[in-house]
Amino acid sequence: MLRVGFIGLGAMGLPMALNLHRAGLLVGAWNRTRARAEALAAETGATAAANPAELAAGCDVLVTCVSADDDLLEVIDAVAPALPAGAVVVDCSTVAAATARAAAAKLAAVGAGFLDCPVSGGTEGAAAGTLSIMVGGDETHLAAARPALEAMGGSIVHLGPVGAGQAAKATNQIMVAGINQAVTEALAFGRAQGLPMDRLITALEQGAAGNWFLSRRGPTMIRGEYPLGFKVGLHAKDLEICRRMAAELGVKLPVVEMTLLHYARLPAPSADEDISALFRLKSDMFDASDD
C-alpha cells in the first residue's frame, strides 16, 4: 500500500488529508500549527510528525499544500535529505511556475520526484474529493502518485513538464477573477433594477450566463452572506503571481489589474473573507448613485 504524508492542514489541506485517510493511504501529517496535526492524528490514527523530515522519511508520496512560494521552498529544503529514493512530492499549493521548477531541481538532486499539482474547486471540492487537479511533471512520477491524486480529485489532467500545472492554475485564477467580477457586478445591477433576486438567479443559471459561481455563491451574496470557499487574500496572492508571469511576457492583463484594485478597496478585514464579498463593493456603486 502506498504510504502518503501530508504537509499543510489549512482550509483546503485538512479535507484533502481526510480523503487520503478514507482511501487508506494517509500515514502521517505535519503542520506548522502542531495542534492541527494532533487533531488529525486523533481522528484518523495517522502520525503527527514532529517535523517535516520525520514525516518524509516514512513516505512514498508526500503531499504539500502551503500558502506561498517561500513556504514551499522551505518545506522542500527540510524534506529533501530525508525522502526515500524514488519518493514523489506532490505539491498542491498555488505558486509560480518558476518556483515549481526550482523545487523539482532540489528534489532531483537527491533522487526524488516532483509534481506541481495545483487544485481548483474550493473547500467544497476539497471536502468531497472532487477537486480539479492540474498536473505538471514526469509521467512516471504521475503514475506513482496517481492513487493519492485520485483520492483527492475528480479530474486529474497532465498538462506537461514541471511548471505546466502552475501555469494552468494561473490561467484558472484569471478566469475566476473575471467570473467573480461579472457575477457580482451583474447581480448588483439586477438588484438596483428592483428585480426579485432569487428568481433572477434561477433565470440566469438556466441560460448562457449560468456558471458554478452564480449558482453556489449568488444565493448567499444577495443575502449579505459570504461563506468561505476561497479567501480574498489568497486569490489576491495568486493574481500577483499571474501579474508577474504576464509581465515576463511584456503584458498587463486588465482583469488581473482591476480585480487586485477592487480587492484592495474592500473594507478591512476582507482578506479572510470569501471572494464573493466583492458583491459589497459592486453594490456600493449603486448605493452611492442614490445619494
Main sheet, how many strands, which sense, barrel? 6 strands, parallel
Reading the helices and strands in chain order gives EHEHEHEHEHEEHEHEHHHHHH
From the N-terminal CA to the C-terminal CA, the straight-line distance is 66 Å
Mean pLDDT: 96
Cα shape: elongated
CATH topology title of the largest domain = Rossmann fold
Return the CATH architecture of the largest domain: 3-Layer(aba) Sandwich
Give the number of domains.
Answer: 2
Low-confidence residue ranges = none
Description:
By secondary structure, the protein is of the alpha/beta class. It folds into 2 domains: 4-162, Rossmann fold (3-Layer(aba) Sandwich); 167-289, N-(1-d-carboxylethyl)-l-norvaline Dehydrogenase, domain 2 (Orthogonal Bundle), CATH 1.10.1040. Helix content is 54%, strand content 13%. The chain has helices at 13-22, 34-44, 52-56, 69-79, 97-108, 122-128, 139-152, 164-192, 197-205, 212-221, 232-247, 254-265, 278-289; strands spanning 4-7, 26-30, 47-48, 61-64, 88-91, 113-116, 119-120, 131-136, 153-160. The strands form 2 sheets. A 6-stranded parallel β-sheet has the order 3-2-1-4-5-6, with helices on both faces. α8 crosses α10 and α8 packs parallel to α13 (278-289).
